[in-house]
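Running log. JK asked me to keep both predictions on one page so they can be read side by side. First protein, sequence followed by its tokens:
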Amino acid sequence: MAVTIHDVAKRAGVNSSTVSRVINGKATISSDTKERVYAAMKELDYHPNSVARSLASGLSGAIGVIVDARDAEAFSNVFFSRSLFAIEKVAQARGYQVMIANGAQSRGMTIENLMKEHKVDGLILPPTTVKPSLMEAIGDFPYVVLGTPDTLRSDTCWVDNNNEQGAEMAVRHLQQMGYTDIAYLGGYQKRGFTKRRVRGYMNANSGRETVLATDGTSENAYTAALESLQQPDHPDAFLCNDNLAAYGLLKACREKGIHVPEEIGIVAFDNYPLAEYMDPPLTIVDIDTALLGEQTAQLLFRRIENRTGNQQIMLSTTLVIRASSERKR
């Protein structure tokens, strides 16, 4: 037998009319009541009739996640998948669907069409789309940027991980372990989060500043690391932009007969599942991308419900210490 709105009301301990108002967003309902209704809908696997809800509320029952198809790496890795999964979970709990669209088309027409044709009730945008012309076109339409935009940072609504803080924390950890000449390895230097990581590295680094940019591959990181390690005054520690850079560095160290962590200390961003199984296991700046997606979606729904204006949320990172940086002094 199909689950009805009355079943949801009974499970949530409210009237059927309250469930209807929560679904349609037509009245001011307390956050506690909304969460009870959403939880009951999820437990009972209740899915409101999207056509009926749209007619009643004027809402589409969908949110749009915009990706920049030109930046294939950023949207084809496990971390974006985790963020997207968290966004899906939050949306599903509210009876919403998630629509993914390419926003890399000229003049942002895909984004504008989604709004003008009422296909979505809110948008999650990548930082690369944040331009004055698009922000003017969006106006008061609910949106949240997934990441820190390089432009209009204080005038837009966004959620991001604190990459700068993570880099500072990593450098200070290496310093505490006795490493004195710390280099930064890997990453596209024009990409926003990489720039912020490098900035954090420079903020905390008290010695020589060495930034070895790569094309993002482990092969290129290996080449850059090997060239650096061949110098007589090579660094004694590296902060790697990601696990791929760390893998290339470890390969170069093995080739040169350099022991980690006795001679070289390594910390890398991003806690890939295999990071703890590398030889040695990698110390990691852990970026919680699932929390990033969850916070972004929750903020978007608050904006859809007209409960908040522009906000900027910066999520803290954590350091997971493993053998690659634990030099015995």
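And the second, directly underneath as requested:
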Amino acid sequence: MNGMLSPSLMCADMLNLQSEITALDNLGVEYIHLDFMDGKFVPNITLDATLIKSVKSVLKNMKRDIHIMAYEPEKYFDRMDIGDGDIVSVHYESSDNIHDVLKLIKQRGASPFLAISPDTDADVLNDFRDEIDGVLVMTVYPGFAGQPIVEGSFDKISKVRNIIDSFDRNILLEVDGHVSWDLCRKMRSCGADIFVAGSSSVYSKGIDLDQAVKKMKELIK
């Protein structure tokens, strides 16, 4: 299976979001990465839940890849119209009832992904063997684009790959954070399947979007 691309909408041209989404869709991109932050779980606020819902109406082939960086993430599911075809990543650290949150995502027809921050040990995944369809490994601290990769991230990606492979199910591994031209190929070799591309690759300066997507797809084959 080739690697899959999930460009981050928070890095796009905010004045031309619909045209950028349509362009990505026409380029055969698999997912559009939608970051939601509550300003409390992380000290930032990005895309509004209503905007994330509205993205659904303009997609043809791309799927929504929703990353919720918020406490009590389930409070936003209705406002985002979470359902069939969506990936929904919620943070291990975001709720005392994270098992119930993952179950609710599944009940809505979406794919539950567990997101783990750099300081969270990958071994926590062993408690979610039968509950997740994927893992989102943060290779930077959540909240802001443009950060350098956290030391030890490649070892962590490899460890996560080994853990989820032991579950004997088809569980996807997504990476988010400084997924650059220089680093994405190594992330792929460590076992990543889905690549959240932002300011260090697809939305980097000096390259057209279509050429950037083509280049990224070649690197993550």
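Observation for JK regarding the second prediction: The helical segments are 17-26, 49-55, 77-80, 98-107, 153-165, 184-189, 209-219.
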